[in-house]
Design brief:
Blueprint: H1 3-9, E1 16-18, H2 23-33, E2 37-41, E3 47-52, H3 53-62, H4 89-99, E4 103-108, E5 111-117, H5 118-141
Parallel strand pairs: 1-2
Antiparallel strand pairs: 2-3, 4-5
Helix pairs in contact: 2-3, 4-5
Length: 145
Amino acid sequence: MHLHELLENKLGEVRQITTDATIHAAIRIMSEHKIGSLMVVSNKGEIFGIVTERDCLHAVADAPNSIKTTQVHEIASTDLVVAEPKDDLRYVLNVMRKKNCRHVPVVEDGKLCGMISIRDVALGRLDEARTELKFLRSYINGPGA
């Protein structure tokens, strides 16, 4: 299975926040939409990085009073791991595991076209395993079984 197949089943847009927004604003957006990350973009809409719920948690744990003053560009990850729609789930899962990341933006022709979480990849791999198991059972049991 390729990422474009996962993206077809995902609803909604990739949520974004500007570099000058505060941690508080990021937390509010993630909470409201029940998501774990936001793409951080410049005021011109260019991709700057990604900020996750864990980034926010660590920042607030280190400086509790900074939630309304610290801007997301200060805590965002800018060394992004990105994927393309044609990438295979196994490949993306291995990259996520090696780079220890749980969210990967999907980019095509330099444009953001989706966001994949480790949960999305795990569920996609589970679907692949179920399909493979179904075909193997059919093969073992023979036609009409």
